[in-house]
Design goal:
381 residues
Length: 381
């Protein structure tokens, strides 16, 4: 195969494929456009013999004219005049004039070919521009198709991610529902457990209070170092008019944090004296005597410090003591007249009269129910 580079003689553009003609006479190459042959005709109509016999325009124009002496000459009609449009020169005369001036015919043919070549060159430039524009459009279309494919792939991937997220969210919703159900069950169980714990605390508190049914608590008695509490208890009983024997007192101690009493009688609030009596009847005598002799004080009891009022109450558990204190505060703020204790139980009444009911307070929930307000949470352990 020859490696000679083929260039179209008409447009001077290199021929890259097999779509061209080779002039059988001058040996010049022409592409299909300059040869004025369509691709359909080149591939479908022209045979190999036709292609080999093809001649370029220049070679065809150089071929001599054939003799036309055998061509019959039209006779001159005498009746036709010049005024009626008859030809001044007969066809024979025209043919003879052409034969007589072959060089003029050749020059005209060459000039016509050059004009055709110029027109073909301009047409070839236009065709090339159209081809370049077509290729540019194709490139843009290919780029658009590629970008569209990438966009479709991205949208498909995003749709898959969304589907995956929806599936994950559905699983999470199911888990949340399960957890809510379990939490609800646990809350129910916790509420039941809390109610059971509160019930147990209440029962333990009542049992502890029963152990204190023989105890009394004496407050506001001045405290001093190395004091004899049994003697003080006897003085209090004498002040209240209660006959007390030595066997009636089981124990007497001060409860609470120890105060600084290194000097003369303490000036700060003294600790209460807790007295455990041998019988519950003796405790009731003390409490009844206090009701009769309200406002009793330490005067004539030979105790240090200035005379001051003292109080005798039944002893309460820590939980009942806090509940009693809170009930007295609420009663004072809300205008309730009566809050008292009896046998370790706490009662409240809004006013005097049979139409005012007596309320038994066992817990802080009872405070909210009776006084119509939510009390602040305090430790009742």
């Amino acid at each position: 195969m020859s490696n000679v580079k083929k260039v179209c003689t008409g447009c001077q553009i290199a021929i890259e494929d097999r779509r061209y003609f080779l002039c059988g006479k001058c040996g010049q190459y022409y592409d299909l456009i300059c040869a004025n042959v369509s691709e359909q005709r080149f591939y479908n109509t022209m045979t190999k013999e036709h292609k080999n016999a093809w001649r370029c325009v220049l070679c065809i124009s150089k071929q001599p004219k054939f003799d036309n002496t055998n061509t019959p000459v039209r006779a001159v009609i005498d009746a036709v005049t010049v005024q009626r449009g008859a030809a001044v020169t007969s066809p024979m005369q025209l043919d003879m004039s052409v034969v007589e001036n072959p060089q003029s015919v050749m020059d005209t043919t060459i000039e016509t070919y050059h004009n055709m070549t110029i027109e073909m060159t301009e047409f070839q430039s236009f065709v090339l521009e159209m081809r370049a524009f077509r290729e540019e459009i194709r490139e843009e279309m290919r780029a658009n198709r590629l970008e569209s494919k990438r966009l479709n792939d991205s949208v498909a991937a995003l749709a898959d991610r969304i589907t995956e997220c929806e599936s994950h969210m559905k699983k999470l919703d199911e888990r949340v529902e399960q957890l809510e159900v379990r939490l609800s069950d646990k809350r129910d169980g916790t509420s039941t457990l809390s109610a059971a714990i509160d019930q147990l605390k209440s029962e333990l508190n009542e049992r502890d209070q029963e152990f204190l049914l023989t105890d009394i608590e004496i407050t506001c008695i001045p405290e001093q170092k190395e004091e004899n509490l049994l003697t003080i208890v006897n003085k209090v009983a004498t002040k209240l008019g209660v006959t007390l024997h030595a066997e009636d007192v089981v124990s007497a101690v001060r409860m609470g944090r120890i105060l600084d009493v290194t000097r003369s009688p303490a000036t700060s609030r003294p600790r209460p004296i807790v007295v455990r009596l041998a019988r519950r009847a003796m405790r009731d005598r003390f409490l009844d005597a206090v009701k009769v002799r309200r406002g009793a004080n330490t005067e004539d009891m030979n105790l240090p410090g200035r005379p001051c009022r003292f109080f005798v109450n039944e002893r309460l558990t820590k939980r009942n003591r806090q509940l009693f204190r809170r009930a007295r505060e609420l009663a004072r703020d809300l205008g309730w007249r009566y809050v008292w204790t009896k046998d370790g139980r706490i009662f409240a009444r809004h006013r005097s009269g049979s139409d005012a009911p007596r309320h038994h307070l066992r817990s802080e929930a009872d405070l909210s129910r009776v006084f119509g307000t939510v009390p602040s949470r305090t430790s009742t352990s």
